[in-house]
């Protein structure tokens, strides 16, 4: 029996996916990485938002590309939906249970997703290690 490579490597745990997403962000030095766990909020559109920002349009674009490549390489998964690459001020990568938001600094402050979802569990990733603070 021939097995599908994608299904063999697909993470069964969203935390595995989150770790690959964070690794992709860190590879390009994305800033202020946050996991907003909204799974306990009624009618939430996903389980987790991973939020970070870059210093320029090129940096935002490079972070998004790195996340896509890391997740594809490790799991064989592509985003279900993606948008924002045209202006690279706010790029969204939708992996269904986990949605990645990559902002430029000004838009991150303006939209303040962490504040909007303040009733969620918010974990900041330590910039120097793999752990959550």
CATH superfamily: Beta Polymerase, domain 2
Q: For the largest beta sheet, what order do the strands appear in spatially?
A: 3-4-5-2-1-6
Distance between the termini: 44 Å
Shape: globular
Total helical elements: 5
Element-level helix/strand string = HHEEHEEEHHE
Radius of gyration: 14 Å
Main pleated-sheet profile: 6 strands, mixed
Class based on secondary structure composition and strand pairing:
alpha+beta
Provide the helix percentage: 25-40%
Number of strands: 6
Tell me the number of structural domains: 1
What does this structure look like?
The longest helix has 19 residues, at 57-75. This protein is an alpha+beta fold. The protein is built from 5 helices and 6 strands; from the N terminus they run H-H-E-E-H-E-E-E-H-H-E. Helix 2 (14-27) packs across helix 3 (57-75).
């Amino acid at each position: 029996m021939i097995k599908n490579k994608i299904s063999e490597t697909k993470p069964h745990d969203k935390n595995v996916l989150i770790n690959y997403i964070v690794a992709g962000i860190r590879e390009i030095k994305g800033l202020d990485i946050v996991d907003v766990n909204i799974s306990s909020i009624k009618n939430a559109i996903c389980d987790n938002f991973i939020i970070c920002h870059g210093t320029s349009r090129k940096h935002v674009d490079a972070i998004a590309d790195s996340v896509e490549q890391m997740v594809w390489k490790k799991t064989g998964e592509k985003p279900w939906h993606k948008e924002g690459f045209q202006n690279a001020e706010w790029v969204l990568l939708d992996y269904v249970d986990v949605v990645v938001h990559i902002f430029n600094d000004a838009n991150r402050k303006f939209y303040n997703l962490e504040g909007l979802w303040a009733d969620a569990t918010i974990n900041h990733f330590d910039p120097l290690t793999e752990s959550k603070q």
